[in-house]
């Protein structure tokens, strides 16, 4: 048995004049909040590459999109949140999607099986993506950039204040996320104000120092100005007002045109090195001073964080079908393993005396819709982490149910003891 509390507001809806601004905490509500169903997904570009194909469409929003999307979900073990005798650890999920897509409402992120199997509280939040989450003029208070990351941080603050009421232990919070979600967690590790909000971190197929993860302040400004031009907003003092007057669709539709030579791993609106959320580039911060002076040694002594990180066997194949000529969903192309692996590297931060665990996930699900040549593609360990094979309707094998229970136990043990 699991109690699910869905669609809890953690921020004021970022509408109208609040578009592009850092999130504000949600006002208190009167009476009883209906938390029985998911709320909106955040506004985003939808994948139309393979219409009607479940392998790609499973990642598209399954709820109506809206800018009013800053909600979180809580799953608690047991039928009701009668506070257990001892608070239990909390797992907080941050979804991926290249910082331009993703939603906590997706079926594959349903926290019920993980909460039940491991006796943990599971939380997931929506955060703003694309231009609405990452367009910024660093230094400008009304549109500083990185507001999608600030959404995540505000949700983590909400967990600190409120998760005790659900039987969760605010002192035992583990973040877990995949792809851009894992990169986000890496950026929180490098941003001192986020550090008090979690003890442990699981980075699945992503790291903060990937070349696609951040841009410099000047490039961030250039991209913001380019989008403004594309939607017909004049440069100058009226620019933000003009951008705020556009419909979300008008902005989202032009995102792809900001970087015309898209290629793979080129996302227009991503976290920006703003001197605020990120004091320096992730490389410099990870190098502990490799960025001209102030580095790791200047960070406040935040609680040490245990890390679990890893990858799936065939990280790159998912991207090949989207951006590399000669590759399609139904045909592979000849490319040597060396050429291919040259482009796929996950950076491991210099872990000083922390517990750092690594995994490689190499099981290809029996019901996977993508073609066999793609192996175990990016994103296809997630269903095992969330216990989807325990759902009898989904036609996994008995072996896969066992594998999923084992993976959940690894993640659960990590959340409990590091």
Radius of gyration over C-alpha positions, nearest whole angstrom: 21 Å
Number of helices: 13
User: What is the CATH fold-level name?
Assistant: Rossmann fold
Beta strand count: 12
- The low-pLDDT segments are 289-302, 336-353
- Output the strand order for the largest sheet: 1-4-6-5-7-8-11-12
* CATH evolutionary superfamily: Alpha/Beta hydrolase fold, catalytic domain
| Beginning-to-end CA distance, first to last residue | 26 Å
Give the domain tally.
1
Question: By helix and strand content, what is the structural category?
Answer: alpha/beta
General description of the model:
The protein is of the alpha/beta class. The chain has one domain: Alpha/Beta hydrolase fold, catalytic domain (Rossmann fold). It contains 13 helices and twelve strands. The strands form three sheets. It has an eight-stranded mixed β-sheet, with helices on both faces. Strands 2-3 form a two-stranded parallel sheet. A two-stranded parallel ribbon has the order 9-10. Strand 7, helix 5 and strand 8 form a beta-alpha-beta unit. Helix 6 packs across helix 8 (248-258). It is a peripheral membrane protein. It is an enzyme of class 3 (hydrolase). The active site is at residues 179, 315, 378. Residues 2-332, 352-418 form the Carboxylesterase type B domain. Its EC number is 3.1.1.-.
Structure characteristics:
single chain, alpha/beta, Rossmann fold, eight-stranded mixed sheet, two-stranded parallel sheet, neurotransmitter degradation, EC 3.1.1.-, Carboxylesterase_B_AS, hydrolase, AChE-related_enzymes
